[in-house]
Design brief:
It contains two helices and no strands. It has 100 residues and is mainly α. The chain has one domain. 1% of the residues are buried. This is Proton-dependent oligopeptide transporter family. Belongs to the major facilitator superfamily. Phosphate:H(+) symporter (TC 2.A.1.9) family. Keywords: Membrane, Signal, Transmembrane, Transmembrane helix.
Length: 100
């Protein structure tokens, strides 16, 4: 079981690295179009790395909002399932006691 968890961890790290590299290449090519200086320029005085970090912060915020939505949906599903199982348990208990 631990080897499966390790494999899943390594695959997720590989995908994260690939996405980070892809994002860096996209930002570099999009912001450098039209003869302008890219945000990720090799000259730190000409580039705007701060804009890149603001973009990363915005993407992190979007990820957090998505996480909150998933938590809310999961909570509503799990609470309805627990209410249903509680009602079924009550019916079984009532049947054992001989109550109608």
């Amino acid at each position: 079981m631990s080897s499966l968890a390790m494999v899943m961890f390594m695959v997720s790290m590989a995908v994260a690295s690939l996405v980070a590299s892809l994002l860096t290449n996209i930002v570099d090519s999009v912001t450098g179009q039209g003869g302008g200086v890219s945000w990720l320029s090799s000259d730190i005085d000409e580039g705007h790395v701060d804009y890149y970090y603001w973009l990363l912060s915005f993407l992190t915020l979007l990820n957090f909002v998505y996480y909150l939505i998933c938590c809310r949906v999961h909570r509503s599903f799990s609470s309805s399932e627990s209410r249903l199982s509680h009602a079924v348990d009550e019916e079984r208990y009532d049947g054992i006691e001989g109550k109608p």
